[in-house]
Amino acid sequence: MNFEIQILGSSSALPTINRFPTAQILTANEQPYLIDCGEGTQIQMRRFNAKFGKIKHIFISHLHGDHYFGLFGLLSTYNLLGRTEPVNIFADKELENILMSENSPIKYEELSYKLNFFHLPDDTQIIFENKTLTVTAFPLKHRIKTRGFLFKEKKRQVNVIKEKISEYNLSIQQILDLKAGKEIEISGKKFLNTDLTNPAPPQRSFAFCSDTAFNEDIIETIKNVNLLYHEATFSKSDVSNAEKTFHSTAEDAAIMAKKSNAKKLVIGHFSTRYNNPTILLNEAKEIFQNTFLANDGEIFKIEF
Amino acid sequence: MNFEIQILGSSSALPTINRFPTAQILTANEQPYLIDCGEGTQIQMRRFNAKFGKIKHIFISHLHGDHYFGLFGLLSTYNLLGRTEPVNIFADKELENILMSENSPIKYEELSYKLNFFHLPDDTQIIFENKTLTVTAFPLKHRIKTRGFLFKEKKRQVNVIKEKISEYNLSIQQILDLKAGKEIEISGKKFLNTDLTNPAPPQRSFAFCSDTAFNEDIIETIKNVNLLYHEATFSKSDVSNAEKTFHSTAEDAAIMAKKSNAKKLVIGHFSTRYNNPTILLNEAKEIFQNTFLANDGEIFKIEF
């Protein structure tokens, strides 16, 4: 089952030719979930062959333009393409006001599909779940209300060993019982569940933290995450800018990865003042070796 | 004095990797004027090294998203860069409602500069003029209120011939009189103005017509234009689509160029159904030979 993110935009507020504003797609079990939607997201989706027609759920961290101005074009394009499936938007309630107001750039009554809004809570809460995963929103520290998102695979069932199915000619009911963790009897002989199954793969997780100042309050929530995406707008030499604007340095991001015991760190949301964000990568690696730079189009597979 | 347009977006409503939605910059006498502002316009400006900080005046043809959704990002970027010079927006009054509403994506009270709105009239009128040019707005035929724009250089003064200045040791007052078209006396001898001057260069003009169905009503307005940009969304084989959506075929655009005695035609706003718009170019050239395809980044110098 695939579980991966694709970077669509890795710049901070000012876009560049090579780095669009923030947007990412998390794909889990073939279903893409859009996280933030900066200007030009629909163009990046085409450029990088993302399955943008399959997106049903959009998660918006906060309402600075570089994280949602691409929604207007994307939602319009869905309409032009005659979409009928609803779009579910998880965002601050202010976004519903913007999109549904009388003077909205999107004329709701002309849309070929329904827009459903789910307002993000102030505290840490599961805001979405389906068979594949849960999504938890949690507060970040920024100039306006901002939430991070934790995507976590659900606990999966044990795998019945194929060879055992044929060896004991297991019935469908027996297979279902085994998958549910039960023990079964075959011709009067009791088997342990573990005799006939392999353990379920561990649950993978991905945390998205942007935009935010350094914030240890979220460590419990993202503890042991497989992949942490954390903004790293500034170098340590610009720490006063980071503090002033409620952003993080590359070191901040790395300390967060270390303290939350993340397996891997991807940093992004780079200020355009750095022509080459390798300086940020090096600063982060000093503290957390398994760090990577977000680059537009790049896919990070989330490993077990 | 330069007088040229640069294409920033040449696609119709659905953008592609190589063709962003509609936006163009007309530059006259070093001053850039933005015409339409589809999603990603600020990114295209960076890509093609347009002087986007120098833009003072923005002309929006109509309020379909592919012609103005880039305004949100552009106006935000001006704010982030600390712009203080006002931005003048010429558009349907509905755009002021969108941008200035309580639920606008742009928080006006946070902007570092002033936004001035000039509502486009329903009939054909000069809507802007300065020392360099006049801009005339005129109604096009589309599904919603849409205006074309005619940019016309002002009549310039005659040029005093340099050699004559030294030959007759002309005073500043004499030079000013000559530039104003007067005749002068030198040592009691009368000179014709044309004895000492070269005629002023002719006035160049550029007309922007997008989006629109075929519309002969505008021919008088754009008569003898040096460069006509006319939308050509469809091929003649899709004429029923053109009629249904109030767009033009490439042939329509070419007939407009011919009937208005344009010197040159640039077509754009291509439907994404044509992988290669050369088919549209060929259809137009059958009727109007001096036709060119708009391509993102391309500059068309407007000749005398």
Give a quick set of tags describing it.
homodimer; 304 residues; alpha/beta; Metallo-beta-lactamase, Chain A; seven-stranded mixed sheet; 10 helices; globular
Give structural notes.
The structure is a homodimer of 304-residue chains. In chain A, helix 9 (250-259) runs parallel beside helix 10. Chain A is of the alpha/beta class and 304 residues long. In chain A, the strands form four sheets. Chain A has a seven-stranded mixed sheet. In chain A, strands 7-8-9-14-15-16-17 form a seven-stranded mixed sheet, covered by helices on one side. In chain A, strands 10-13 form a two-stranded antiparallel sheet. Chain A has helices at residues 41-47, 70-80, 93-100, 162-167, 172-179, 193-196, 219-222, 239-245, 250-259, 278-287; strands at residues 3-9, 23-28, 31-37, 57-59, 87-91, 115-119, 125-129, 133-139, 147-153, 159-160, 184-186, 189-191, 197-198, 205-209, 227-231, 264-268, 291-293, 299-301. The first copy, chain A, has ten helices and 18 strands. Chain A has two domains: 3-156 and 201-301, Ribonuclease Z/Hydroxyacylglutathione hydrolase-like (Metallo-beta-lactamase, Chain A, 4-Layer Sandwich); 159-198, no CATH class. In chain A, helix 1 links the parallel strand 3 (31-37) and strand 4. Chains A and B meet through helix 1 and helix 2 of A and helix 1 and helix 2 of B.
